[in-house]
Specification:
370 residues; alpha+beta; T-fold; 9-stranded mixed sheet; 4-stranded antiparallel sheet; 8 helices; 27% helix; globular; signal; metal ion binding; metal-binding; membrane
Amino acid sequence: MLKKTIFLSALAFCLLLAASCKSTIKEYSNIWLVMGTVCRVRILTDEPKKKADEVLEKVYAELIKLDGIFNANTDESSIDNNNLNGLIKTQESELERLNKAAGISPLAVSPELYELLQISLMMAELTDGAFNPAIGPLVKLWNIGFENETVPSQKEIDDILPLLDYKNIELRDENQVFLQQKGMRLDLGGIAKGYAADKIAKIILDYGIKDFLIDLGGNILASGKNPLGKNWKIALRSPIIGKQNPVISLNLQDASIVTSGNYERFIQKDGTLYHHIFDSKTGYPVQNNLNASSIMSKSSTLADALSTSSYVLGEEKTRTLLQRLVEEDFPLIGFPEMPACFLFYKDNSISVLGNDKASIEIIDKDFFIK
């Protein structure tokens, strides 16, 4: 499930200019370790503390539920939120049970997993496999960011490439899913946190709270206004390995921004850096002149999937993809407006694609707009 680093190394973080809330509005927040990362939720409301606590409890319960569905790393330890210094073993997730049934039998899955697989397959088709929910065997083989991470041999890579065909994911009636080849393994780490952010945002909105900020492992979703009554101001940190300083800022309202980059998780061998964003056609980390890609969209689910796929696709193919999203009809996710894409190049240039309403402010003067 882990696609990006936890809170302290997340690409996106919120910058506020600091001020007190309006007299009737108070801020309530909580922070949890869940879905392999850190989630912080801030809500602004004039409701009593008891109601605010109820909202945050509902949010946490939903996150735990979704973690139990989508976690692809249940053999790893996770953090116990009742004891932040302690570790607990994660129970086998629904996704893991589906992976174990690969090539054996179909499995009836939850509505959430079925829906996310529908969206994932739509994105796989749209991106010609740049986003690939069947990439699990490759992620496991390299294991970057976990114990026993390694640079596999060419033979090891060649052996698993046939297992990465997302077209062998069969969605049947009554929420039945069948992975057609034994050894297939789904990994939804490139979309699940975005989906979870959208789900918990709906919970908060259903309580009548419209001003809030979600940071789920660097997946940022902002709704309404900040404590100053203005749009939330978000900064994106440097996409250069070893640097944490912010490089650009932008205003975010009723939208999400998600970033994928080559600096977040990687290993080095014989002077070569291997990062965690893979090309499932070659079996290797993507090699291009990008450091990172950020997507701003009304849908955090889409922003999550597109941040990975745009990094894989590069500028011209991403430009074409963004245009398709608003010109064609997609039944699962609507596009009220074109997403914006910010591509960070290794020469410190930034390309802004898609929504021309998206404006950014350069903070680090070493960076510049192409």
